[in-house]
Amino acid sequence: MRIIPEIRAFEDDLVAWRRDLHAHPELAYRENRTAGLVAERLRGWGIEVDRGLADTGVVGTLTRGDGPTIGLRADMDALPLEESNTFAHRSQHPGRMHACGHDGHTTMLLGAARYLAGHGDFSGTVRFIFQPAEEAAGGAKRMLDEGLLTRFPVDAVFGMHNWPGLPAGRFAARVGPMLASLDTFDIRIAGHGAHGAAPQEGVDPVAAAAQVITAVQTIVSRNVDPLKSAVISVTRIHGGDADNVIPPEVSLGGGIRSFDPEVRALLCRRLEEVVEGVCASLGANGTVEFTARYPAVINAAESTSLALKTAAAVAGEANVNAETDPVMVSEDFAYLLDASTGCFMLIGNGAGEGGCMIHNPGYDFNDDILTLGATYWARLAQNFLRKRGG
Ligand code: NI
Q1: What HEC string does 135-150 produce?
Q2: In angstroms, what is the span from residue 11 Cα to ligand 1's centroid?
Q3: What CATH number should be reported for the domain whose range is 181-294?
Q4: In angstroms, what is the span from residue 161 Cα to ligand 1's centroid?
Q5: All CATH 3.40.630.10 domain ranges in the chain, comma separated
Q6: Boundaries of CATH 3.30.70.360 in the chain?
């Protein structure tokens, strides 16, 4: 590990900040305390601060002479989850928890900002982007809609997420698709209610729903190219209130994930056809409404190469997986990559207590990787903004 000595020297501060954020988790668009602390620290190091994008977003800008601009992004929000940990820095707010490590992400980027603010060995601009509402609420999209990249342009933007199961001290990324796109859907099946004893007098939406769910399983297995990846999961079903009444309507919902825009379009088109066709064959009326949630995270070749080289210089070649498998989860950093170019990197959080995955009540960010993550950010900015001839 080549941790920057100045960052190693303030490691105790990083751990204290991270634990303080962990103890005070805030949900989407309510990251007021967190954003206040972030802004105050950035200003304290002489970094220009703009607040208010997407309510609680914070953008820090640090310029040293002429050159390109790099964006480094961290997320700040917590999850509506009851923490099961009992350590001293556990959540002080019932029903809220930093179960995805955004407390660590915020702290690592603050560490890099503190170091870079004190060291002039780059030429250009660093933008420190602290976004609200990564979890399900699309904070990155709102920051973009409110002018993030027009008011604060960047030449490339980089993101990082801790990954439990990946050993601490390791990095992983890949060129091309890295995380999946997500569309959610609502299916409405309208039939005709009747007495449970007289189905011939109605149109049963429950029976239609059962056939729809089964038929939907053929879309990935029969319509998608077997060499491409896709998931359709029906995760919710509601209908009926009584044992002797055929209800008039059933609703279903779930999500569609893929990496390829053509596959994504195919999945949506086929879902609509299957729902409408199966329902029509049974005399019911099936409709589908989609909500586009996230594009896929697609890492650009040039940015990813720089990010991987930086990670290898910091953590050692053997600790960098440059061809990690893509994962089917989604990230709203995808919106930033869609609007600009860049790379999303995974940093190992270690096996964790009992191999605890993110979004789990026993999860905790690993403080041992704070200086590593901060060093990666700082070196990435320096490499991107290397002084010409220097
Ligand atoms: Ni997360």
Answers
A1: CCCCHHHHHHHCCHHH
A2: 23
A3: 3.30.70.360
A4: 7
A5: 5-179+296-384
A6: 181-294
Give all strands (DSSP E) within the chain, no chain letters.
48-51, 58-64, 69-75, 124-131, 156-164, 171-172, 176-179, 181-190, 194-195, 230-238, 245-246, 249-258, 285-294, 297-299, 320-321, 342-350
What dotted CATH number matches 5-179+296-384?
3.40.630.10
**φ/ψ of residue 71, rounded to 5:** -105, 130
Distance of CA 25 to the CA centre of its chain: 17
Whole-number Å distance, alpha carbon 8 to ligand 1 midpoint, is 25
pTM: 0.90
- 342-350 and 171-172: which strand pairing? antiparallel
pLDDT band at 356 (very low <50, low <70, confident <90, very high): confident
Q: What pLDDT does 355 receive?
A: 57
Read off the pLDDT of residues 134-146 as tens digits, 9 standing for 90 and up. 997 789 999 999 9
Nearest to 166 by CA among 346, 365, 367: 346
Task: Annotate 165-218 with three-state secondary structure.
Answer: CCCCCCEECCCEEEECEEEEEEEEEECECEECCCHHHCECHHHHHHHHHHHHHH
| Count of C-beta atoms within a 10 Å radius of residue 275 | 25
Select from 20, 65, 67 the least CA-distant residue to 41: 20
Q: Contact at 8 Å (CB) between 363 and 165?
A: no
CA of 125 to the centre of ligand 1 (A): 26
Cα(330) to centroid(ligand 1), Å: 9
Whole-Å CA distances, 15 to 231, 356, 374: 38, 20, 12
Among all chains, which residue has been given the structure tokens 């088109």? Answer: 269
